Amino acid sequence: MGVYSLAEGKLIEVGYFDLQFLSFDGKTSYRDWKFMPPPEAIAPLPGLPC
Fold first, then answer.
1. Which superkingdom does the taxonomy of this entry point to (predicted)?
2. Residue 3 near residue 33, CB atoms below 8 Å
3. Beta bridge partners of 34
4. Is there a contact between 34 and 2 (Cβ–Cβ < 8 Å)?
5. Is the dihedral of CA 8, 15, 2, 44 positive or negative?
6. How confident is the model over 11-50, as pLDDT tens digits?
């Protein structure tokens, strides 16, 4: 689960990101930026199979 934008606007910054945002490097639109929690932070819902 994460969040992202549907905006197609041109980015002001396209490089030199902090380590946590390295996946944004070289992207050209806001819709390419996806904010996701680290895998270890995602827990299965109680009662549902993994």
1. Bacteria
2. no
3. 4
4. yes
5. positive
6. 877 788 888 888 888 888 888 888 888 877 777 778 766 6
Q: In whole angstroms, give the CA distance from residue 27 to residue 4.
A: 13
- Does the predicted TM-score (pTM) go above 0.70? no
Structure tokens at 21: 């945002």
Compute the distance between CA of residue 13 and CA of residue 25 in angstroms, rounded to an integer.
9
Counting DSSP H helices and E strands in the chain, the numbers are 0, 2
Where are the chain's structural domains? 3-40
**Token pair for residue 26?**
């070289």
Maximum alpha-carbon separation in the chain: 44
Pairwise CA distance, residues 12 & 10, whole Å: 7
